[in-house]
Design a protein that fits this description.
The protein has about 270 residues and is mainly beta. It has one domain: Peptidase G1 (Jelly Rolls). About 0% of the residues lie in helices and about 50% in strands. The strands form two sheets. It has a 17-stranded mixed sheet that branches. The chain has a two-stranded antiparallel ribbon with strand order 12-13.
């Protein structure tokens, strides 16, 4: 798909999305991904609106950029009916998220997704380095996953209405989040470790900015570090100092949305 000229001084922006912002590596040819990982510090969120509920998720995962499943794990921060919650979760989309333990803003997190070719299982692991809490689970995926991409993402999650429609939730003001130690690996004849979000060989790097349904810029990734292992994603307050996004030739992605579980499960989960 055609890329776009840099926006707001950026020269690395390829795609726009109404729910993702960050980076995605896409495998080329017959290559597939075997793992993805990164570290980040959980940002403190605030409510930028007059509404009672806002949400933000931060995660690493395989698939979803150009395929119908996502194997992912990360953290979520939400203001729900006046209370603020932070927690870790994993999800094998299209199944709903599974909250696993509570965290605090400022905590140092590490997360990874690994595919075992001999068992066809995915191991999703997340650790709060600050508190020592951790969780890991292994599971197969149905339908079978393509493993065609690896992602490092800040997301506006979604919920399912009573009619079964999927609707986006309002994005919390998370300030900025820095992903570090980003890495991925390829399997098969293209077996290789990718240090950072790196184009070349059997993978291409794609940046994603988040926009509202009215094309307002909402969340913006920075350029990559020199070795591709770190970058920052920043919340853009509406209407945003950068104004209305001029899409030009930029492709707008219909990316997969995380469908959250109802609140009340150990005070974890998001609105349904």
């Amino acid at each position: 798909m055609p890329g776009a000229q840099g926006f707001g001084g950026q020269s690395n922006l390829n795609y726009a999305s109404t729910n993702w912002s960050g980076y995605a590596d896409a495998a080329t040819g017959s290559s597939t991904f075997g793992s993805v990982s990164a570290n980040w510090n959980e940002p403190t969120i605030s409510n930028p609106s007059t509404g009672p509920n806002v949400f933000a998720s931060f995660w690493v995962g395989l698939d979803g950029f150009n395929s119908g499943t996502v194997e992912q794990t990360g953290t979520q921060a939400e203001v729900y009916k006046g209370n603020t919650y932070y927690f870790a979760w994993y999800e094998l989309y299209p199944a709903a998220e599974v909250p696993v333990f509570a965290i605090n803003p400022g905590d140092s997190m590490s997360a990874s997704v690994n595919y075992n070719a001999s068992t066809a299982d995915y191991t999703l692991s997340i650790k709060d380095i600050t508190s020592g809490a951790s969780y890991s689970t292994s599971s197969s995926v149905s339908p079978a996953a393509a493993r065609s991409s690896a992602e490092w993402i800040a997301e506006a999650p979604s919920f399912e209405t009573k009619s079964g429609a999927i609707q986006p939730l309002e994005l919390a003001n998370y300030g900025s989040i820095g992903f570090s130690n980003a890495s991925a690996s390829l399997l098969g004849s293209a077996s290789a470790s990718i240090t950072g979000v790196t184009s070349g060989g059997n993978a291409t790097s794609n940046s994603i900015e988040m926009i509202t349904m009215s094309n307002q810029l909402e969340s913006l990734p920075s350029a990559l570090s020199s070795n591709g292992s770190s970058f920052t994603v920043t919340y853009v307050p509406e209407p945003g100092s950068l104004g209305v996004l001029m899409l030009g030739g930029m492709a707008v992605l219909g990316l997969r949305r995380r469908t959250c579980v109802p609140p009340g499960r150990a005070a974890l989960g998001c609105l349904r």
